[in-house]
Amino acid sequence: MDRNGIYRRRNKETYYMKILAIDTSCDDTSVAISENLNIHANVSWSKLKTHNDFGGVVPSEAKRQHKEFLDPVIAEALNVAHLEINDIDTVAVTYGPGLAIALEAGIDKAKEICKTHNKKLIGVNHMIGHIYSSLARDEEGKAYSGIDDFEFPLLALTISGGHTDLYLMSGHMQFERIGGTLDDAVGEAFDKVGRMLGLGFPAGYKLESLAKSGNSSTYDFPRPMHNTNDYNWSFSGLKTAVLYQIKKIQNEYKGNPIKDDFRMKDESNNLDEETINNLAASFQEAALESLIIKLRKAISQYNPKMLIIGGGVIANQALREKLVALCENSKTPLFYPVPRWLCTDNASMIAVAANFYAKNNMYIKDIDTLDRVPGLEIS
Ligand code: KG4
Ligand code: ZN
Description:
The protein is an alpha/beta fold.
């Protein structure tokens, strides 16, 4: 019987592993408590999601925030889960990819907890977390995406602020990268175009809401690489095409190449509301169509048992609708984390992925050896 009076059965057949997971890869200080795949608490605090001149996150500020927030966020997560630190079996922490000094804050805290309270430690790849976010379940054990388990082979697409990668998974934790972006990530393109349109950072959500009031066929933006016989993308040319279009509208484009500076000041773009909405809608249409074109190719080549999507950009409703149409057409089951908080950065996905690291006995044997890997890839 635990503190809630809930009877938790522990025997050979059913082992309930309680995980405290930490993600400090970017600007959210996030802590989750899970029991197997069920999420009991997910607490994310951030005070950095405001507009700034860099159109991005300042690492030193992110680190300062994590140091300040980690203890209270951990306390709040345990409180929400009605658990104490002694009830936890394993600590899981993101060790990459992400901002080096931000990752470090989470790793240091995870090590401290493990040493003080004698817990096991698992280091989790943030992008594997995004892929496994589809397996997160609520307190009652109902999957947020609608699936109980993956069926293989499957195709997994990660779409976030730093990544656009396509994997073929032949089993749990078995990844083969079959494609991805050659330059900017799709979320990065949303953020950079959002910057040009004078939106805050990150801009994806705001850009999507403006796009709803715009006409997506106003501007004919390119779908770079749509003809290439691979599963790669390029979003940098699309972003530049939007910039040239803005300059044209402003009557400032004189035929010379534009310096690669996307930090336009919001108050200086002089675009009216209708133009901004139309630019947002036309850009979004081109970016999302790009994703769909290559996914269609990959599905017809690999004939996967399912398509899994993870990362902040899957919060986009227009993308969800396009994916539903694509998958209905190809009769491919489609899954993604439905709640917005599970799409963007969160520690629940780290907890869920940690279950699969644990099944493969991928614990950190010597706690002191876990180090941040800012450029960590899935291998
Ligand atoms: O996964 P995530 O929270 O952080 C990273 O791991 O990068 O993804 C953040 C990205 C940002 O680029 C943000 O603009 C984008 O996801 N994003 C969206 C939407 N919501 C978040 N992009 C398009 N439409 C959205 N609704
Ligand atoms: Zn992320």
